[in-house]
Amino acid sequence: MKFSINRIELTKRLNLVSRAISSKTTIPILTGLKLKADNSELVLTGSNADISIENKILSEDSNNMLTVVETGSVVLPARFFTGIVKKLPEDLVTIEVNKENLQTIIKSGAASFTINGLNADDYPHLPEIDTNNSIELNGDIFKEMISQTVIAVSNQESRPILTGVHFVLKNAELMAVATDSHRLSQRKIKLPQIDAEKEYDLIIPGSSLSELSKMISENNETVKMNVSENQVLFIVGQNSFYSRLLEGNYPDTSRLIPDASTTNVEFDNIELLGAIERASILSHESRNNVVKLTINPSDQVVKISGNSPDVGNVEEKLDPKNVDGNDLEISFNPDYMKDALRAFGKSIIKISFTSSLRPFTLLPTEDSENFVELITPVRTF
Fold first, then answer.
1. Which of 129, 105, 107, 132 has its CA nearest to residue 117?
2. CA-to-CA distance for 301 and 264, rounded, in angstroms?
3. Is there a domain that residue 199 lies in?
4. What positions does the domain DNA polymerase III beta sliding clamp N-terminal occupy (predicted)?
5. pLDDT in tens, 133-153
6. C-alpha angle with apex 164: 158 to 167, nearest 5 degrees?
């Protein structure tokens, strides 16, 4: 194998593919990065068995400066190879692999490196997924959907199913929901262009979705999702992102969201987030890390407070847009609240309560049927 390529473009693609490579893998060859060159493209592949990323560098794109002299494939140690390419002196790099011993020569300007390669035939094959049975998603909206739900996945391996986001496609509507049993986040998007008969039910690890989100740029590109029995493939431009699916049945979360409330408050989201951040400065010094919200609708008064026996206390009167219902005092984890509020961005939100010990919901005042966050309060007595 022999080819030359733009060093800057190659570095950019190596950084992307390397996100899927872990030095802690139990399969030694997966610490490497697979390169495969044919007449029209160079394909880079990285994997850690849970996720795999494949990137195609096309020779037809003049920015890539890709010229393939001899086709072939090799697996190179990812950390060393990426580090070498980044430091090369010239814009053009030439890579040549000896067929007999797989020694790989990397040249750029006056610099020349030789590193040992591995046989690409020993690299695990990517799963075969039917790309004809796909759904297309708006990249910006799907990226937002991921960020709004992945915050609620569990990081406790004792219940592996909760470390993922549950996606359900039904009646041309895609719903994503995640919960760690203390909080829940649910987002729906309508897909009118999708065949209403098409249905999916899958659970994707939250860690996979976080990596996928980094690949989706902010230019409204299309994301294609293809599902097989135990794998999902996302195609974003020239990138293919594979992830394993979690096995098992996700708990029924629909019954957790209350359909009635006794106290309701509306806030400017950014203002409330600022108040929670200030209150949490002291709550983080306390063993139980809670803040308290006190609501008196008759007086139109809403206060937030927190204290740490070792440091002191904080109290702040809030400025709600609207408040109605019964008097209420409720305590909660401010970190859960901050994560939820950040997912709403700049908006007016409605928080609905049923009692001081029951989960409460946060919804945007606009488009409220498509996004809801739920937080379980903390018992302080």
1. 105
2. 12
3. yes
4. 1-127
5. 789 999 999 999 999 999 999
6. 145
Check whether residue 175 and residue 261 sit in a common domain. Answer: no
- Residue range of the domain that includes 336: 257-375
Instruction: Please report where in the chains the tokens 């068995």 appear, as a residue.
Output: 49
Into how many domains does the chain fold?
Answer: 3
Q: Which pLDDT does position 381 carry in this prediction?
A: 63
- 60, 88, 122: which is the final residue of a domain? 122
Residue 14 belongs to a domain with what CATH number?
3.10.150.10
Burial 87-116 (b: 16+ CB within 10 A, else e): ebeeeebbbbbeeeebebebbbeeeebeee
Say what the pTM is.
0.92
Structure tokens at 187: 């987002």
Distance CA 44, CA 18 (A): 10
| Half-sphere CA count of 196, side-chain side, radius 13 A | 2
Calculated CA dihedral for residues 107, 113, 119, 122, nearest 10 degrees: -110
Are 6 and 118 contained in the same domain?
Answer: yes
